[in-house]
Amino acid sequence: MKLLFDFFPIILFFLGYYQAGFLIENTVIGHWINPDKPEFINATIIATAIAIVASFAQVGYSWLKTRHVEKMHLFSLALISVLGGITIMLGNPAFVQWKPTVLNWLFAGVFFASFFIGEKTLVERAMGKQIELPDEIWKRLNIGWVVFFLLSGAANLYVAFYYQLGADEQSRMDTWVNFKVFGLMGMTIIFVILQALYLARHIHEDEQTNSKE
Question: 94-113 and 135-161 are packed helices; what angle lies between their axes, rounded to 10 degrees?
Answer without folding.
Answer: 170
